[in-house]
Amino acid sequence: KHRGNADKVAALYAGSEFQNYSDRVAFCSEFLRFGLVPDPDEGSLMFKLRSARFCRVRHCPVCQWRRSLMWKAKAYRVLPQIVRDYPSHRWLFLTLTLKNCPITELKQQLQAMNRAFQRLSQRKAFPAVGWLRSTEVTRGRDGSAHPHFHCLLMVPSSYFGKGYIKQSEWCEMWCRSMRLDYTPVIDVQAVKRGQQPTSLVPELLKYCTKESDLVRDREWFLELTRQMHKMRCVTTGGLLKSYLKELEQEPEDLIGESDEAQLTDDELLLFFGWKRSEQKYRMVDL
After folding, report:
1. Helix/strand/coil for 119
2. What is the average pLDDT across 147-170?
3. Residue 70 φ/ψ, nearest 5 degrees
4. Mean pLDDT value across residues 20-25
5. Dihedral of CA 247/250/252/256: which sign?
6. What's the pLDDT score for residue 265?
7. Does residue 198 surpass a pLDDT of 60?
């Protein structure tokens, strides 16, 4: 699915000022090397990706997917350690939105949202002692852009006593921080006591833009590329920054460092090539 959408993205970039992106995405992950390794749970053999060439273009569906997997793997590994270090703290999942904006004003809107979140985090009433924030942009039916933040907040246990903030109060704080003349839509949910914050990772660290939105309209997609250039989509702060700072950086290895470390000389290797006419990978002989 991701490789097939990558062909569509390459075609959308072709003939534009992003021809270089088109060339890179076209050759991304065309050839894959897998190893057959024992499944630690089932005892049978399983596929393990050993090598591939990724283009690392931000909006390449394959690289966007792999990047999300790397971020999720790190979060799943680190969040339980944070829970052990701060066992009395609780977690909130906060979604902050605005009205849709023209796609040509997306960068300006995202910059304003970043400044507003900084003001929000500096307010006296802001309860979080640490946070992880991701940016998502969806396409409106009229071709507008809908940017919004997904935030995982770590709060002291006292938040659910005297420090509790109602949803209407969160909405007011975001409105003032964004300096809006309308009431935005926000959503805040508490992670139940005893529930791991890792349950929120799939929603928090998903794709910046859905693949269906990427390939729907060429002009919208090209403008999205212009507007999102060098914009950071994952940020951390407070006590979580030292734990999760790697999430703010491009993963060095979209395959996985642990995979290469497990490679053995007698491991059976299988090779697959992308067959564009079939929109499938097929095993190839070398």
Report:
1. helix
2. 94
3. -65, -45
4. 97
5. positive
6. 65
7. yes
Q: Output the six-digit token pair for 286.
A: 């070398």
- Name the pLDDT band for 52 (thresholds 50, 70, 90): very high
| DSSP per-residue codes, 45-93 | EEEEEEEE-----TT-HHHHHHHHHHHHHHHHHHHHHHHHHSTT-EEEE
Taking the CA atoms of residue 166, residue 171, residue 177 and residue 181 in that order, the dihedral angle to the nearest 10 degrees is: -150
Q: Go through 64-87 and write b for each residue having 16 or more CB atoms within 10 A of its CB, e for each that does not.
A: bbbbbebbbebbeebbeebeeebe
Helix (H, G, I), strand (E, B) or coil at 40: coil
Res. 10: pLDDT tops 90: yes
**Helix residue ranges per DSSP H, the chain:** 2-13, 19-27, 61-85, 106-121, 167-178, 201-204, 211-214, 218-228, 241-244, 257-261
Average pLDDT over residues 5-25: 97
- CA dihedral (68, 137, 97, 197) in degrees, to 10, reads -10
* Secondary structure of residue 38 in the 3-state scheme: strand
* Token pair of 17 as six digits: 């000022």
Please check whether residue 111 is in contact with residue 155, taking contact to mean a CB–CB distance below 8 angstroms: no
What is residue 62's predicted lDDT score, i.e. its pLDDT? 95
Phi (first) and psi of residue 9, to 5 degrees: -65, -40
State the sign of the Cα–Cα–Cα–Cα dihedral 60, 62, 65, 70: negative
Check residue 260 and give its pLDDT.
44
**H-helix segments, 122-209:** 167-178, 201-204
- Torsion, CA 225, CA 228, CA 229, CA 231, rounded to 10: -160
| pLDDT at residue 247, rounded to an integer | 75
Cα angle: 247, vertex 251, 254; to 5 degrees: 135
